[in-house]
Amino acid sequence: MKTVVMLATFSLATVCGAPAQNVVGDWQGTLKANGAEVRVVLHVTKAENGSLKATMDSPDQMALGIPVTSIESRDSKLSFTVDSITPHGSYEGKVNADGTEISGAWTQGDSLPLDLKRTAAPSKTEHKPAKPSDIDGAWSGALETPGGTLHLVFHITNTEDGLTATMDSIEQSAKGIPVTGVTRDGSSLKMEMKQIAGAFEGKISKDLTSIDGSWTQGGASLPLLLKRAKD
Question: Which of 5, 52, 104, 225: disulfide with 17, CB 3.0–4.6 Å?
Answer without folding.
Answer: 52
